[in-house]
Structure prediction request, 349 residues.
Amino acid sequence: MTLSRRQFGGNLGLAALGVWASSAAHAATQAADINAEFWFVSPELRPYARKFSGGKDYTYAQVYKEQAEQTKEKVVFEKHPPVVKRLVPVPGGPPVTVYMTNVQPGASRPAIVHTHGGGYFLGDAISCVPAIQDWAKELDCFAATVEYRLAPETTYKGSVEDNYAALRYVYEHAHELGVDRKRIAVMGESAGGGHAALLALTARDRGEVPVAFQALIYPMLDDRTGTSREVPKNAGTLVWTRGDNRVGWRAFLGQEPGTSQVPTVAVPARHADLTGLPPAFIAVGSIDLFCDEDTEYARRLADTGIRTELLVVPGAFHGFDLLCPSTKLTQSFTATKMKVLKRALAGQF
Prediction:
């Protein structure tokens, strides 16, 4: 389906899903229909499932329309911890905007460098500022989120450099920002998880910035999913589909995904050598389109000897924690994620 970034990030309209017909009989019938239709979805998430099923896959026209809508939106965030907007130089490209929170010059705290989701062609960093403020408060850390350039106007060649420039800036300005250089983590959700994985790989290959940890939340890691590689029948039927995935990867790569001509450097799952990467936490729903590719990436990391924790949430679809924030499943998932981050940033993972 085509789901706007505002709906995905802000859960707009979801409250209406809890308002059912006043007739008890009608409600019972409707519940029975949903249970039958979405038997593969976690029971707690089934009332939401119909909202995110069906519809058309993304097209470039839809992408451009939603990108234009993003520029008109305003995001309000808390005054504390304070947020600083920095323009970071990018070799060979325009400066990239990075939103930084909890800057404490001279301190020595862990750091999170975050990359937002959106299929590589949607989303923005400023919308993630409230979340990174929460992380900074709860984890007593510095946090930054990167306004990398979006596809299809910019392929992976530009956005990877944007994210790496932000990471290197945090490392090189560690004293000014109050960051412990030995405890810098990368993190992202969906396409942002793919970017975080690429960031860890890029940092390893360039040997300039040591990354201590990677938190990959239902990451988008493999262009072959839904193109040259089949996925289970019920995977990717809600929120993010096979068709959406093809459009996202085509925009990001600047060429057709799933072929032998796709450059390895652009796709985390195509990297043959995963040695030397930092410890990882990977989390994904069992009916997420990315479940197979994420579990395979976790297996490969573990087989390489990298400390890896994998969480597969039964019956959860893509982005369920953002779309269904009040559910017990989301609360449990978020609590686990924060506990892992706390351990990792303390060097105890």
User: Anything to note?
Assistant: The first helix runs from residue 5 to 10. The first strand starts at residue 83 and ends at 90. The chain has twelve helices and eight strands. The two ends are 37 Å apart (CA to CA).
